[in-house]
Amino acid sequence: MSDDRRDEDPLAKSAEVRGARYRRWLREGEPTVAHRLAQIGVLGWIIVTPMLLGLFAGRWLDRQFSTGLFWTAPLLLVGLALGCWSAWRWMNTA
Q1: 25/19 Cα distance (integer angstroms)
Q2: CB 47 within 8 Å of CB 87
Q3: Which of 54, 34, 42 is nearest to 86 (CA)?
Q4: What CA dihedral angle connects 16, 86, 90 and 39, to 10 degrees?
Q5: 20 to 30 A from 26, CA-CA: which of 9, 64, 73, 74?
Q6: Residue 91 in 3-state DSSP?
Q7: pTM, full prediction
């Protein structure tokens, strides 16, 4: 199979990524417990930070326009969606 066709074939691309991950695992070994806990902490902050930014922006807008929770709830949900999307992207990187 030529190099051009291998770049287009998703199965070949997936096999190359899997092989690279396996070689890295052989070289580096299993991550420590501290490393895994650090990953969990980062994952939490990736989700929480956009939510807090949406919450603070929503509360500020609600105070400016005296609208109760009109802006807070939607911006909190937008922050949650953005945080979950960012976490998903972070977990699925090579």
Answers
A1: 10
A2: yes
A3: 42
A4: -160
A5: 9
A6: helix
A7: 0.70
Can you give the residue ranges of every domain in the chain?
A: 1-30, 33-94
DSSP helix/strand/coil, 67: coil
Which alpha helices (DSSP H) does the chain contain, by range? 3-8, 10-28, 33-65, 72-91
Share of residues in the chain with pLDDT > 90 (%): 72
Phi first, then psi, for residue 71 (nearest 5°) are -95, -30
Long-range contacts of 18-26, Cβ-Cβ distance < 8 Å, separation of 24 or more: 20/94, 21/94
Q: What tens digit of pLDDT does each residue of 51-82 get?
A: 999 999 999 999 999 999 999 999 999 999 99
End-to-end Cα spacing for the chain: 25
